[in-house]
Amino acid sequence: MKRIIALLVFYVLLVQVAFAQIDPELLRRVPAKADSLSLNMDAVYDRPFLQIGKTPVALGGYVEANYQYLGENGISEGHQFKMQRLTLFVASSISKRIKFLTEIEFEDGTKEINIEFASVDFEFAPLLNFRGGIVMNPIGAFNQNHDGPKWEFVDRPISATQMLPATWSNVGFGIYGKKYNTDWVYAYEAYLTNGFDDKIIANTQNRTFLPATKENKDRFEESFNGSPLLTAKVAVRNRKIGELGLSFMGGIYNKFQEDGIILDKKRAVNVVAVDFNTTIPELKTYINAEWAWINVDIPDTYTEQFGRKQQGGFIDFVQPLLKRPMFGFESAVLNAALRLEYVDWNKGKFKSTGSNISDEVFSIVPAISWRPTAQTVIRFNYRYNWQKDILGNPPSRLGGFQFGISTYF
């Protein structure tokens, strides 16, 4: 870890020294695309980059820092400040039809260092392109379009981080394509990658918990069970109506054999997700929603607290209140926002009593955000959660204030 940090510090210093020797007129900011027909699956390249003249390499990234004061059932840990994440992008146009991009994320200071994306794209035709390396599995919309500066909320959605494994990426290969037709755009992508492991049920959460599989760092060099994970998505967008996406992710998660000896039957995990976003023209209200369903083949030796079915999602409403020069910023925007969330970690009934299993959480997050520029956001949230345990006892309640900043650089 110390060597990695030292190398990164050396790299940053080297870049700064190099930039100091370059004519400032050669440095140019490549903005993120503002195309009304851009899709969530385009987010990996729709970012602002800094480029030096006509060199093929561009640099970028974003940073998030937060403060919160939360209390749960009357108990609080007090004032908490957090360096949430620092993410670096490096993109390169190797040739006219070959490009490379990598995304490296540092979370909680340097507690976690992850390569979230590192792929080479070969462009053959609009409807047929090839991608290989570490790819972002396209399940839902948030997993692909997760950059902090794009959101009005300090926390990422519960369904995307605690039900689905947010920023879920694996090594693999796949194809993607897109077709434009007047006010419409149609797109698809499909990948075969390494996938889940048995940590989704053998974990410290004591529940079916897909994000636990991210602890397996070996997934970037080998498959846990030799079975590929299929992830596929189709999306359509109309310039006036909005975007609709449908995605699927499925594969075997358990080690069913070892050295030719059968250990268990193949047990699958399948996820289906739908996402939608639109803007109401008259009010400029932005609406963004995502919902996912999970099915897991749980061994009979596991108790009913491990859910075979899960579901959940979120919906965001963002309403611009003011758009005018503020404090010297020419295009500043003040927004009001609201997020509604729900996750059911164990959808079903107890076999013994027939009563509902109540392992679920509800959340409401009103927010005010100020954007001095489109690439920077200062946000103030109030979070209120109520969560029921598996037996449906009176819910645990959490509430409190959150403040944060996030910006591309």
Question: What does the model show?
Answer:
InterPro entries: Porin_dom_sf (IPR023614). It comes from Chitinophaga defluvii. The chain has helices at residues 2-20, 158-163, and strands spanning 27-30, 49-52, 57-72, 75-76, 80-95, 98-107, 112-125, 128-136, 169-181, 184-193, 229-238, 242-252, 257-258, 261-262, 268-280, 285-296, 309-326, 329-344, 360-373, 376-388, 396-408. With 409 residues, the chain is mainly β. It has one domain: Beta Barrel (Porin). Strands 3-5-6-7-8-9-10-11-12-15-16-17-18-19-20-21 form a 16-stranded antiparallel barrel. A two-stranded antiparallel ribbon has the order 13-14. A hairpin with a 4-residue loop joins strand 2 (49-52) and strand 3 (57-72). 32% of the residues are buried.
Strand and helix layout:
Layout: H1 2-20, E1 27-30, E2 49-52, E3 57-72, E4 75-76, E5 80-95, E6 98-107, E7 112-125, E8 128-136, H2 158-163, E9 169-181, E10 184-193, E11 229-238, E12 242-252, E13 257-258, E14 261-262, E15 268-280, E16 285-296, E17 309-326, E18 329-344, E19 360-373, E20 376-388, E21 396-408
Antiparallel strand pairs: 1-2, 2-3, 3-4, 3-5, 3-21, 5-6, 6-7, 7-8, 8-9, 9-10, 10-11, 11-12, 12-15, 13-14, 15-16, 16-17, 17-18, 18-19, 19-20, 20-21
